Amino acid sequence: MNSVTLHNIKIILVETTHPGNIGASARAMKTMGLGALRLVNPKLFPSADATVRAAGADDILSEAEIYDSLADAVGDCKYLYGTSTRKRSLQCEVLSPESATNEIINVMDNDINIGIVFGRERTGLTNSELDLCNKMVAIPTNPEFSSLNIASAVQIICYEIIKRSLITGQDNVSAKYENTPVDSSELARLYAHLEQCLIDIDFLDPLKPRRLMRRLKQLFNRTEMDQNEYNILRGILTAVQEKIKQK
Ligand code: SAH
User: Considering the domain boundaries, does residue 230 fall inside one?
Assistant: First the structure.
């Protein structure tokens, strides 16, 4: 197994309340050969509880990267999967752990960071956090009792990753895409530009935004937009803005 590539899979825990769950997630990752842990605003970290529950996966805890927001934590990721138990009214494609990890193994490459995002113990991920993700992953569970402990969810996803990476043999995996997608931070700039442009042309009323931007983000999140396509769209938006300024 090529651990360099597996290191490009970032397990991202958002606002975890119990430090023990961070430790247990680190243990779950290490047993499956993953090592890159990112924490967004953990309530308490570092912590003795986390270290105890890591049961020897202390290296993952000490190397964990800490961020103030999910947007910052995923800025360098090209593919983002949000994990969730719940169906949302407006949501992107929902994959099984098998399908998601198949995709992940297929696109994995040394230059590509992939993020898998896990939510808060009580409330999961917010809609705007899920809107950063290209796809959602739901682990099949009892519909009447569907919520797993977060470290158990991490364990299942990481298990699917190691299973597939052993099957495919990491060394044979190369980038399947000639034009790899732009990073999440670039998409965030595009969305801000698009929103401003839609306001400038009176298509979007900032006082009554409804779900327009969410729908547009989900549309673009599905496209795996490459740098060329990104530059074209930014260029179009700039041209529209210049034209209306001249009028
Ligand atoms: N009540 C919350 C549950 C949070 S459980 C909710 O409805 O979202 C904490 C985290 O564990 C979730 O945000 C998700 O990242 C993960 N998780 C728990 N059960 C899961 C499942 N069945 N499928 C995918 N992720 C799950």
Answer: yes
Task: Determine the Cα–Cα distance for residues 44 and 128; give it in Å rounded to an integer.
Answer: 24
- Please choose, from the candidates 144, 150, 190, the residue with its C-alpha nearest in 3D space to the C-alpha of residue 11: 150
79 DSSP assignment: E
Q: Are 202 and 162 in contact (CB under 8 A)?
A: no
d(Cα 144, Cα 134) in Å, to the nearest integer? 27
Which residues' Cβ are closer than 6 Å to ligand 1? 83-86, 118-119, 121, 123-125, 137-139, 141, 146-148, 150, 153
Tell me which DSSP letter residue 183 carries.
P
d(Cα 135, Cα 241) in Å, to the nearest integer? 31
Q: Which of 86, 116, 148 to mutate to test the pocket of ligand 1 (most atoms within 8 A of CB)?
A: 148
Query: What is the rounded distance in angstroms from the CA atom of residue 26 to the CA atom of residue 61?
Result: 7
Domain identity same for 100 and 73: yes
- Per residue in 149-191, pLDDT (tens digit) is 999 999 999 999 999 888 766 544 344 445 789 999 999 999 9
Best-predicted range by mean pLDDT among 16-25, 159-168, 180-189, 226-235?
16-25
- In DSSP terms, 179 is beta-bridged to none
Cα(56) to centroid(ligand 1), Å: 25
Whether 154 is in a domain gets the answer: yes
- Separation between Cα atoms, residue 213 and residue 197, nearest integer Å: 12
**Residue range of the domain that includes 97:** 3-172
